[in-house]
Structures are given as structure tokens and as C-alpha cells.
Write a structure and sequence with these properties.
The chain is mainly α. The chain is 79% helix and 0% strand.
Length: 431
């Protein structure tokens, strides 16, 4: 039997596939930790260096700009060198950048190191999602991709709990040392446990592809194949141009708009929640927990979205989550009790992360293997431009003296636009 994809589609999920999914979850946990560490450190950093909100916004945006560049320009190389190699590169770039951030002596150094760290983080998000999607059977691909991406808020939540203990006691630099070290020590896990994507080997046929594919099939308990299926004629090589060909032009444009608007709101929230919460008069520790509650809610939002999308359709559930997030952000201005504020942070995290993560599944479905990492990477890259804009605008508005309530009203609007854009994505492969 030479139809390798049929083996994955109709066979039971093997222990090797589970290993791939678990490693990809773990990689996204590192992403969540490395993205949010600067937000958790922001109140202590601002106090230590007397950093104004506008400069904090620039520091946040530097990391997000790196993520945009990593997703758009680094991640597509995974369509040429392979998913596994790219993930290894991302771990090295992320870990080194985060670790060295602990030794920053100026805002300029901090901006540069956040950009470098962002390159690895942005590429990792795209590549881990692609790897998981390519090892998942089509019948439950949406749910598995959602589970993999749920690693992001898990990492953010755990790092928030660690930050709440480390930063007040040892300072913000210690948190970067911990996060950088935790990232770098995962290199052996990726090297020894993560195989190359079978879809990548089949479609791109690098040197030794047949032998590598058969070794992977053996580990999965399948019979070896005598030859790989012929490469498709439709796409010669991965390129951004291919994302707009073969009926994919409008779906790509709408997907990019949905990503952009989602990231505007998401990264305003993830970057500023601890700082905004501390401005309400609660303690630094409780302000950090506000970010933690947000990401804990995100975990349940992502998992529930993956499950519900199997029953009710991917685009419909994504749009529902996004509109629900906007409503919760409107409600936020009418509460004042600390426990209600924390609960709303959790529900907003549920909605915004649950909705936006579904866009990864949409991208994994509308693009074929040969350009899948490029498609997901550029979708995230388009979103990351929104991630750059969101915190920067937030810093400007906060510096102008606008209240938390007003900021939430302003940043609810992109969620409505993202919901509309998601519903406009038309493809035979997306329900």
C-alpha cells in the first residue's frame, strides 16, 4: 500500500502521532511563556527604569514586530528545509533571545532582544500548527490543531504563576533567565522525539525521502512503501504568489483581515492587562494574576472552540466567539468588584483566544501541503502587524489618560470586523 495519507486518515491514531501532538503542544507552551514574559515583567520594569507607557508600548511592539517577521519570512523556509529543522531553529532563537534579555541595560537593548526573540516565536507558532495538522486525520484535524494551540495559554498561565512568585521577590531579570533556560533545555526533546512531517516528505521529496518516510511508518506500525506518490503538478515551489492562485485569492485576503483584527485586540489585551489591572489600585501580584486568569480562560476557549467547530462548523463558531468577546468588553466598563473584574478577564480570554485560534485551522485547510507553512506563516504575519499596532495604540491612549473602560470599548471594534471577515472566507475545505 503506497497511499500514506490513506494510512493516516483511516488508521488509528498511533503513539508516534500522539508524541508529535504533545511536542507541538509543548512548543506552543514555550511560545506563550516567551510572549507574555515581557507583559508580566512590565510593571516591575517600568518601576525600575521609570519607563513611560509610550516606551513600554514600543518595547511590546518590538517583540511583536519580530513575530510578524518570523511568521512571514522565517516560517516559509519550513516548506523548503522541513518542519522539524525549523522548530529546532526556532527553539535556539527564542531561548537565546529571552535569556539575553535578562542582561539588558537600556530600552534600546531590550527592544533589539525582543525583536530577535520574536523571530523565533512567530515562526514556531506557524510551524508547530502545520506539523500537528499534517499528522492529524482529517476527521478531527480542527480539534487536534486547537489542542496543539492551547499550549500557548497554558504556557502563558504557568509563566504567570511563576512570575507572580519570582518577580516580586527576585526582580524582572530573574524571570527572563528562567524563561530562556526553560526554552533552551527543550532542544533534546525536539531532536530525539519529533520526526519530520510525512506530508512534507511526500510532497517535496527531499534527499532520502523514501527511507525517512519508511522509518516513520515503521514507528507508527504501518507497512513500508515501495515508492512515494508523484508530486502534484499544481505547485512547483512554495511562494507567497501561490497563496493568491487556484481560487485562493479572496479566502487569503479575508483570512489576513481576520488575523489582523484579531491580533489588534488580542495583543492589546495580553500586553496591557497586568499594567492596566495594576492601575486600578490592586497589588502587583494580583495584577499578574489578572493576566494569568485571562490565559487560563483562553485555554478553555481554545479547547471548546475545537470541539464545537466539529459539530457546528468552524467559521460559525469562530465568529460567535469573536462577537461574544466584543460584548464582554462592552460589559467590562460597568463592573468594579475585583473578583468580577478577574472573572471577566477570564471570559474575555476564553472568547478572543478561542476565536482567533480557529483561524489557524482555517488556514491549514485552505492551503495545500506545499505552501501550508507559507500560508499559515503569512496569515500570522498579517496578524502580527495588528499585534504591533494594538499595544502601540494602547500605550498612546493610556498615556493620553483614557480609562481602561474606554480602551476596552475601542478595542472591541476589531473583534466585530474579524467576525465578519471570518464569515466571508469561502472554501470547499472549510465549513
Amino acid at each position: 500500500m503506497n497511499d500514506i495519507r490513506a494510512m493516516l486518515e483511516h488508521g488509528k491514531i498511533t503513539s508516534l502521532q500522539v508524541t508529535v501532538f504533545v511536542v507541538c503542544v509543548f512548543m506552543n507552551m514555550l511560545d506563550g511563556m516567551d510572549v507574555l514574559v515581557i507583559a508580566y515583567a512590565a510593571p516591575a520594569l517600568a518601576a525600575d527604569w521609570s519607563t513611560p507607557p509610550e516606551m513600554l508600548g514600543t518595547i511590546f511592539s518590538a517583540g511583536l514586530f519580530g513575530m510578524a517577521a518570523g511568521a512571514a519570512f522565517l516560517a516559509p523556509f519550513a516548506d523548503k528545509i522541513g518542519r522539524r529543522k525549523m522548530i529546532l531553529i526556532c527553539v535556539i532563537v527564542m531561548g537565546t533571545g529571552i535569556f539575553l534579555t535578562a542582561y539588558s541595560q537600556s530600552e534600546l537593548q531590550l527592544i533589539a532582544l525582543r525583536f530577535i526573540s520574536g523571530l523565533g516565536i512567530g515562526s514556531m507558532l506557524a510551524t508547530a500548527a502545520t506539523m500537528g495538522a499534517e499528522y492529524a486525520p482529517d476527521r478531527n484535524r480542527n480539534f487536534i490543531v486547537s489542542i496543539i494551540l492551547s499550549g500557548y495559554p497554558i504556557g502563558a498561565t504557568l509563566s504567570g504563576l511563576v512570575a507572580a512568585s519570582i518577580i516580586p521577590e527576585y526582580g524582572w531579570r530573574a524571570m527572563f533567565l528562567v524563561a530562556g533556560s526553560a526554552t533552551l533545555i527543550t532542544l533534546p526533546i525536539v531532536f530525539f522525539l519529533l520526526p519530520e512531517s510525512l506530508d512534507f516528505l511526500i510532497k517535496t521529496k527531499p534527499k532520502g525521502a523514501l527511507e525517512k518516510a519508511n522509518r516513520i511508518l515503521k514507528r507508527m506500525g504501518h507497512e513500508a512503501v515501495t515508492e512515494l506518490p508523484p508530486a502534484p503538478e499544481e505547485i512547483k515551489q512554495a511562494s507567497v504568489k501561490e497563496l493568491f492562485m487556484h481560487g485562493r485569492k479572496l479566502p487569503t485576503i479575508w483570512l489576513w483581515l481576520a488575523f489582523f483584527m484579531s491580533f489588534v485586540t488580542l495583543y492589546f489585551l495580553t500586553s496591557w492587562i497586568p499594567k492596566l489591572a495594576s492601575s486600578t489600585g490592586i497589588s502587583m501580584k494580583l495584577a499578574i494574576y489578572a493576566g494569568t486568569v485571562f490565559n487560563l480562560g483562553a485555554f478553555f476557549g481554545i479547547v471548546s472552540q475545537g470541539y464545537l467547530s466539529l459539530k457546528f462548523g468552524l467559521r460559525r463558531i469562530i465568529s460567535f466567539y469573536m462577537v461574544g468577546t466584543a460584548v464582554l468588553m462592552w460589559v467590562f466598563g460597568y463592573v468594579s468588584e475585583s473578583w468580577i473584574i478577574l472573572m471577566l478577564f477570564g471570559l474575555i480570554g476564553w472568547g478572543v483566544q478561542g476565536g482567533f485560534v480557529g483561524l489557524y485551522s482555517v488556514a491549514a485547510r485552505i492551503y495545500p501541503t506545499e505552501v501550508r507553512n507559507t500560508g499559515i506563516g503569512w496569515g500570522i504575519g498579517a496578524g502580527r502587524t495588528g499585534a504591533i499596532v494594538g499595544p502601540k495604540i494602547g500605550g498612546t491612549l493610556i498615556g493620553m489618560g483614557l480609562t481602561l473602560t474606554t480602551n476596552f470599548l475601542i478595542f472591541s471594534v476589531p473583534m466585530i470586523i474579524a467576525a465578519i471577515a471570518t464569515r466571508m472566507i469561502k472554501s470547499d475545505d472549510v465549513s
